[in-house]
Specification:
By secondary structure, the chain is an alpha/beta fold. The protein contains 8 helices and 6 strands. 48% of the residues lie in helices and 17% in strands.
């Protein structure tokens, strides 16, 4: 992992269901725009996905000026993960997969309002990410629900992208709780 300066992929994991893509992809577009506006073009975007989402993701990224690799091939994905510098991850299983690969990440997610409203009365959990719940602290930065907006997401991404000590600390903590 220490050779991360040679890694040239930024992973976008927007979810595995059509409705997640519809709801969450606009947030990935904010990050894409951040990369373009900051002239960060020495990275490629890697979107590992499922077959039923390839056409949709291809359409959504067709005008992007940064090379974007959309892949469903598990063997190819494993090789690509070795070159991932950081990941912007939709919560859940995907975050655990990124964690076990020791890739620094931020997690973003938004429950629909009704689900969030019901959950807020039934569940008293401070975090959404399983490693954060287990450790009872924010190991992996979460930008979720009412905190998920362009400003907060870009602030979290900026730290993830630019702060080596933030990334190192996250990986050290992940190793403890994995």
């Amino acid at each position: 992992w220490n050779n991360n300066h040679k890694k040239n992929l930024i992973a976008f994991l927007p979810g595995s269901r059509d409705n997640e893509i519809n709801k969450l992809f606009p947030y990935l577009e904010y990050i894409y725009e951040y990369l373009i506006s900051n002239n960060i073009t020495d990275y490629k975007i890697f979107i590992p996905t499922l077959l039923h989402l390839v056409d949709k993701l291809t359409y959504l990224t067709k005008d992007w000026k940064i090379e974007t690799i959309i892949s469903v091939n598990i063997e190819k994905n494993e090789k690509l993960y070795n070159n991932v510098f950081i990941s912007v991850t939709c919560s859940g299983t995907a975050s655990l997969e990124i964690s076990k690969r020791l890739i620094p990440q931020i997690v973003f997610y938004k429950l629909n309002f009704l689900t969030y409203f019901i959950f807020s009365f039934l569940v008293s959990v401070r975090f959404a990410n399983i490693l954060n719940i287990l450790s009872n602290k924010m190991i992996i930065k979460e930008v979720i629900n009412r905190n998920l907006n362009k400003k907060n997401l870009l602030e979290a991404f900026d730290i993830l992208f630019n702060d080596q000590s933030f990334r190192d600390k996250q990986i050290l903590e992940i190793k403890k709780y994995l």
